[in-house]
Design brief:
Blueprint: H1 9-39, H2 44-48, H3 52-58, H4 75-95, H5 99-102, H6 107-140, H7 151-154
Length: 155
C-alpha cells in the first residue's frame, strides 16, 4: 500500500509521461520556430504577436503549463528569453534595408518568399477541401424533410 502523501506508482508514471511529452512539444516547437524564422517563413508581424501564451498554444500544451512548480524556475525563463531574442532579431531584420537589394543575387530571397506563398496556398487549399467535405457530408445525409403545409390544404 502507499502512504497518504505518495501517489500510486501507475499514476506517478502516467504523470511523468504527460510531463515529458509536454516538455518535448515545447522544445520541438522552439526549434521549429527558430527554423521557420531563419528560413524566412515567419513574418515580423507573426514574431511580434508571439507571447508566452501564444507560444504554448502553438506548441499544443496548456497556456499555464510553464507556470507550474516544475517548470516555473527553469524552463519558463528560457522560453521567455527565447521569445525576447526572437523579437529582437525580427526588429533588426525589419529595420535593415532589404537584403535582396544589397545582394547581387536576389534569387534566394525570392525563393523563400515563393516557398512561403506556396505554403500559405497549400494551407488554404487544405482548409477549402475540408470545408467542402463537411458540406458534402451534411448534404448527402438522408434525414427528416420539412414540408411546408399551405393553409388551403388544411381546411
Amino acid at each position: 500500500m502507499t502512504s497518504g502523501r505518495q501517489l500510486p506508482i501507475h499514476l506517478a508514471l502516467a504523470a511523468k509521461a504527460r510531463s515529458d511529452t509536454s516538455l518535448a512539444k515545447i522544445l520541438a516547437h522552439k526549434d521549429n520556430l527558430t527554423a521557420k524564422f531563419q528560413s524566412g517563413r515567419m513574418s515580423v508581424n507573426e514574431v511580434m504577436a508571439l507571447g508566452l501564451g501564444e507560444f504554448c498554444r502553438q506548441a499544443d500544451v496548456g497556456e499555464n503549463l510553464l507556470n507550474g512548480d516544475k517548470y516555473r524556475n527553469d524552463v519558463k525563463p528560457g522560453i521567455k528569453s527565447f521569445i525576447k531574442d526572437l523579437k529582437k532579431l525580427a526588429k533588426e531584420r525589419s529595420t535593415d534595408p532589404e537584403q535582396s537589394s544589397s545582394n547581387e543575387n536576389p534569387q534566394p530571397d525570392l525563393e523563400v518568399r515563393l516557398s512561403r506563398v506556396c505554403d500559405l496556398l497549400h494551407e488554404a487549399r487544405l482548409a477549402l477541401h475540408s470545408k467542402r467535405h463537411i458540406i458534402r457530408t451534411l448534404t448527402s445525409r438522408r434525414g427528416r424533410v420539412v414540408v411546408g403545409i399551405s393553409d388551403d390544404e388544411t381546411s
